[in-house]
Amino acid sequence: MPAPPLLLHSLTEFRDLILSCLEAAEVRVVLEIGSESGAFTSELLSFVARREGELWCVEPYPTLELEELGASEQRFHLIADRSPQALEGVEPCDAYIVDGDHNYWTVSRELDHAFRNREIARAPLVVLHDVSWPCGRRDQYYAPDALPPGAVHPHSWDLGSRPGEKTAGRGGLRGSGAFAVALEEGGERNGVRTAVEDFVGGREDLRFVHVPSVFGVGFVYSRSASYAQALAALLDPLDGNPLLERLERNRVDLYAKVMELLDAASDAGLRQGRLIAEYDRSLTAAEQEAAALRLELAKMRESGKAP
Question: Are 227 and 24 in contact (CB under 8 A)?
């Protein structure tokens, strides 16, 4: 059995809560943006199958398992393209699970698509991951070149986010080439939570609930929806819960410390490696010099000039 990850980061950790909310909202058709390893995708597929519904999945780089699922399951529809453009050909869904590219521009347009031309009472339920640190107030980009220039903040592929520090720096939570992070945290049009709050702020009929755990999960739904009261019963105890906030802060602080220690050990290993390499070079040079001297001495002995 594989060891659990050092840092919990998946929407799968919220499976019970999310599926309960989907059940309360009587959801049949779900659109998932970003599938990770496909673990939660499988759970969503089981859910819609029980309700004789459908699951759409937008994933620009699907795994082989997802592709096989798309070929074998009639209820599963895979779109191997980037959001938000991949959403344009999809009919309105009952619920959206948003866990793709964690930046303001992308999330804003995903929300706009979900709620566009929808009656208030028939508005969907939208679940969004990464509304807390580190992406809540700091953009993250998997493919910044695919976004409009004005949508991308100055960013780095090498620096990382560190709890309590607004400016990205060496170490911290980083993509190591898999994704880039905005150099600065906060400010306008920066981060997933900022995108959600700006969108909901312009719509009095919508409510945003923030569960501050495992990088934060958000729920957006219409206050006038038939299922609003049932969702409130599930979510109100968790909305901005101060205990969850403290536990999450402690969790990321501990992880940041672990990363710091790992980086220090790696640096020490590199320094040790460089010292060993330098020693090897010096030893090789000394051996070569000794060999040359032995050869010269042998020649001198042959000529009778050796001491």
Answer: yes
Backbone angles phi, psi at 37, to 5 degrees: -85, -5
Task: State the residue range of the domain holding 104.
Answer: 11-240
User: Which pTM was predicted?
Assistant: 0.86
Taking only the tens place, the pLDDT of each residue in 166-199 is: 999 988 899 888 999 999 999 999 999 999 999 9
Whether 2 maps to a domain, the answer reads no
Give the sheet arrangement for strand 180-182, strand by strand: 140-141, 180-182, 155-156
Dihedral sign for Cα 255, 17, 60, 167, please.
negative
Whether residue 275 lies inside any domain: the answer is no
Where b means 16+ CB within 10 Å and e means fewer, 240-256 reads ebeebbeebeebbeebb
Secondary element (H or E) of residue 244: helix 242-302
- Using a 10 angstrom Cβ sphere, with 0-12 exposed, 13-18 middle and 19 or more buried, the burial of residue 135 is buried
Q: Is residue 110 part of a domain?
A: yes
**Residue 268 above 60 pLDDT?**
yes
Q: How many domains does the chain have?
A: 1
E strand map for 10-105 = 29-33, 54-58, 76-79, 95-98
Which CATH number does the domain housing residue 32 bear? 3.40.50.150
Residue 223 CB coordination number (10 Å): 15
Q: Is residue 261 part of a domain?
A: no
